[in-house]
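Section 3.1: Structural characterization of target chains.
Under the original work plan, the team committed to producing a structural model for every single-chain target entering the pipeline before any wet-lab resources were allocated. The record below documents one such target. The sequence was received from the expression subgroup and is listed exactly as submitted; it comprises 220 residues.
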Amino acid sequence: MRTGVSPVFDSPCAPPGSVSGKATLTIGLTGGIAGGKTEVANRFADLGVPIIDTDRIAHGLVTEGSEALAGIHAAFGPDALDDEGQLRRGWLRRRIFDDPEAKHVLEDILHPLIRDRVTDLRARVTASYCIVVAPLLFETGFEAVVDRVLTVVAQPETRIQRLMARDGVSESEARAALSAQLAPDERRARADDIIENDGDLSGLNRQVRALHQHYLSLAG
């Protein structure tokens, strides 16, 4: 099974620098930690839908010598980089978890660059619609740049068990991670479409296929 999705699939996209000639319906895919966003994105990818993954974009932005890495170094100091000038991802992850203000500083550095990259990739899509995977879609105002929001939801206990199994964290750490995020009820209220991801894969597939047909009809 795949563990992630490419930022954009090659087959449904025009060459770099070209455009599709019309605005592509853009679906923002979001949800809480361990809710199943990646699995849902993979299911849409299996149907040939182009996927733009903001986490992978962010990962690629902080390469040596990049604008983003320079901004992080300036904001967080030399401790943010290792001896080879690479980002100390674990250090930064702990820093922003412990300090909400540091999290906002990092978002101010990365999110404008991520938006620019998403805009560029979306302009190359020639398929009927594409999906932008954005875990912090609501928190960062990213809903303003998509046409519809699809939220993946799962019961807290389900997510806690998944997070413990996936990341090897304790139950208390998993609960703390969930409590630091946007409340599930707010995610539901602000979504246009919802996928319930507490069941088996066959149920998930049915929901994805139904939404795929819905999005194709909306795209015309």
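The domain at 25-219 is CATH 3.40.50.300 (Rossmann fold).
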